[in-house]
């Protein structure tokens, strides 16, 4: 069972859940995103947003937390393979941070489109 196809998939899922828990426990940027996600969900219930709006909101939250998690992994990998200052490492980290920025802008636009009509 342990080395079977199903056993490997189940173990892989366990590592992934462990990784998500480590991100939530140790990464301040993920903790901030998680807190914002809870606030956005409270707002969603408060304003009674539609099912479609919930879908976009959940997608935006998932997008931004995924990007932030991958950025954290890239930063950790970069620091591990090259702990010293190097312009290439700086470039890699900047590009990874840029991806998070794009996800954040996307989420802000989605949030604006959803909540603007409820607030104004
Ligand atoms: N080893 C390095 N070599 C060159 N530039 C670096 C290096 N480490 C960091 N930088 C520069 O500093 C910026 C911030 O890097 P850092 O690793 O501190 O990320 P951060 O966004 O502050 O993440 P966190 O707050 O999660 O540590 C990078 O985007 C890069 O421009």
Automatic annotation (TrEMBL):
UniProt-listed InterPro entries: DAGK, DAGK_sf, UDPK
Known cofactor(s): Mg(2+)
GO-annotated cellular components: plasma membrane
Select a single GO molecular function from the record's annotations and give it. metal ion binding
Q: Where on the tree of life does the source sit, at the highest rank? A: Bacteria
Instruction: List, alphabetically, the Pfam families matched.
Output: DAGK_prokar
Q: Where in the cell is it found?
A: Cell membrane
Q: Where does substrate bind?
A: 68
Which keywords, in A-to-Z order, does the entry hold?
A: ATP-binding, Cell membrane, Kinase, Lipid biosynthesis, Lipid metabolism, Magnesium, Membrane, Metal-binding, Nucleotide-binding, Phospholipid biosynthesis, Phospholipid metabolism, Transferase, Transmembrane, Transmembrane helix
Q: Does the keyword field hold Translocase?
A: no
Q: Does the keyword Cell membrane apply?
A: yes
| Residues binding a divalent metal cation, per UniProt | 27, 75
Membrane topology value: Multi-pass membrane protein
* Cofactor binding: number and manner: Mn(2+), Zn(2+), Cd(2+) and Co(2+) support activity to lesser extents.
User: Which residues are recorded as binding ATP?
Assistant: 15, 27, 75, 93-94
The record's Gene Ontology biological-process terms are:
phospholipid biosynthetic process
Chain ranges passing through the membrane: 32-49, 55-74, 95-118
- Which residues catalyse the reaction? 68
Q: Which PANTHER family match?
A: DIACYLGLYCEROL KINASE
The entry sums up its family as follows: Belongs to the bacterial diacylglycerol kinase family.
List the protein's name. Answer: Diacylglycerol kinase (ATP)
């Amino acid at each position: 069972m342990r080395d079977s196809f199903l056993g490997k998939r189940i173990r892989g899922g366990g590592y992934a859940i462990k990784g998500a828990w480590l991100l939530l426990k140790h990464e301040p940027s993920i903790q901030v995103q998680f807190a914002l996600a809870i606030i956005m969900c409270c707002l969603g219930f408060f304003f009674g947003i539609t099912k479609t709006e919930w879908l976009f909101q959940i997608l935006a939250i998932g997008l931004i937390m995924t990007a932030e998690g991958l950025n954290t992994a890239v930063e950790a990998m970069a620091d591990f393979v090259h702990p010293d200052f190097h312009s290439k490492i700086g470039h890699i980290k900047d590009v990874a941070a840029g991806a998070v920025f794009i996800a954040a802008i996307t989420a802000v636009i989605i949030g604006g489109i959803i909540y603007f009509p409820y607030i104004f």
